[in-house]
Design brief:
mainly alpha, globular, 14 helices
């Protein structure tokens, strides 16, 4: 695929994000509290999946620790806003947001060092060990995390003196943050960093021969992807207003991995589609009663059998068929003109 076609696709992705944000700003106005929660939760998990998509989909580095970074951001936010004695301060959540991103960025740098030495499934095992370690800390270090009892009464942010306790107001706040982080990711993928990450995934040896610093970009991919997980955690904590270790277990990292794969790894919009499939669809399927998990699992298997590239892979197949059909029509028209 040429560089021009890659940029045109990314520009189309940017337009999709902006149009989608404009629609979402007004669409949920009539929804009740639970509906707003589900859409807000989808946006938060899309941010976490966006970070994993950068690490896995663009840089080709396998990670099973994204839920751990989500947990680090959530607990840091809870400690600062709920336990730090500054819950009512306007700057408490922005401080928590910055701290969450910084902590997980640094943790990603540390976790990225093994990626310099081990590859493929060995790297996944290293990140799996880190995720297990963080879950044990969340569960057992009660003096810091509250242990199995967790943290409750986590306040929602205060913006320009107004508390975002209203569900619609908080949803719109989450939407704004999601759009800003999406724009930052879009800019980064258009930058030389984005091309270096893709070169790292496609052919590291060739990338090194072209002057790409493999060490720096490997660490950077892990760090930025991890930071997105932490930033998602800073939104997750005030969204649910109560956290305990369960949502950050190792199994949650597998769900985030599934989210990226189902949506389409290496595609800008993949995390949003995958998060809708992994977190919104199960809620929709609850009308089936106890069968909803079975129905969901069957849908995942069928989707990946039909399109290993995920949901966007299906769209790309239709686009490719359309391009081939248009090209064939042009050839037929040219033959008809020559024959005439």
């Amino acid at each position: 695929m040429s560089r021009a076609s890659i940029f045109s696709r990314i520009d189309a992705n940017l337009a999709t994000i902006l149009i989608g944000a404009a629609i979402l700003w007004f669409a949920p106005a009539g929804l009740k509290s639970y509906g707003l929660y589900v859409i807000s939760f989808w946006l938060v998990m899309s941010i976490a999946a966006m970070g994993l998509n950068l690490t896995l989909g663009y840089a080709g580095l396998k990670s099973l620790a994204q839920a751990a970074f989500l947990g680090i951001g959530a607990y840091a936010t809870a400690l600062i806003t709920a336990k730090g004695g500054i819950a009512g301060a306007t700057w408490s959540w922005p401080l928590a947001f910055v701290v969450s991103g910084t902590l997980t960025f640094l943790a990603g740098v540390v976790l990225g060092f093994p990626a310099l030495r081990v590859k493929f499934h060995y790297l996944a095992f290293v990140t799996l060990a880190f995720a297990t370690l963080m879950f044990l800390i969340f569960r057992n270090e009660q003096w810091l995390t509250g242990g199995v009892y967790g943290f409750s009464n986590i306040p929602r942010p205060t913006l320009f003196g107004a508390k975002l306790n209203n569900d619609l107001a908080f949803f719109r706040f989450v939407l704004i943050v999601s759009v800003l982080l999406s724009l930052a990711m879009w800019w980064m993928l258009r930058s030389p960093w984005g091309r270096a990450f893709q070169a790292l995934r496609e052919n590291p040896l060739r990338a090194a021969s072209l002057g790409v610093n493999l060490r720096n970009y490997t660490l950077l991919a892990f760090a930025i992807g991890s930071a997105y997980g932490g930033l998602a955690g800073a939104l997750y904590a005030p969204l649910v207003e109560f956290i305990d270790p369960a949502p950050f277990a190792v199994s949650a990292s597998f769900v985030l991995l599934l989210t990226v794969v189902v949506g389409g790894q290496g595609y800008f919009l993949g995390p949003f589609l995958g998060a809708a499939f992994s977190y919104v669809l199960p809620e929709v399927l609850r009308f089936t009663g106890g069968l909803y998990l079975l129905v969901y699992a069957a849908m995942v298997l069928i989707l990946l059998l039909i399109s290993p590239q995920g949901i966007i892979g299906i769209v790309e197949k239709f686009r490719e068929r359309r391009r081939q059909k248009d090209a064939q029509d042009q050839r037929d028209a040219s033959k008809a003109m020559l024959g005439a």
